[in-house]
User: Which sequence fits this backbone?
């Protein structure tokens, strides 16, 4: 999360500036196993904090999302990545 127009990281009380795959086991999951990320200025409550309060004004949020590669089947039926 970057504040605008300065494009500087937004300070937060959790001192967290990213969420990546090694952190996933620490994050609280929804009942269906999904993750809900709440992006707002005020804390949604201790039980729902993932990144802490965010920018008070205009901001930019960068998300890099990756999916697993699916195996591809060839005409012969063998699997290739």
Assistant:
């Amino acid at each position: 999360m970057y504040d605008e127009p300065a494009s500087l990281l937004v300070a937060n009380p959790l001192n967290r500036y990213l969420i990546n795959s090694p952190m996933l086991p620490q994050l609280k999951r929804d009942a269906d196993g999904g993750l809900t990320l709440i992006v707002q200025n005020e804390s949604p409550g201790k039980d729902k904090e993932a990144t802490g309060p965010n920018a008070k004004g205009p901001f930019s949020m960068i998300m890099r999302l990756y999916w697993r590669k699916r195996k591809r089947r060839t005409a012969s039926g063998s699997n290739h990545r």
User: Anything to note?
Assistant: The chain is about 0% helix and 10% strand.
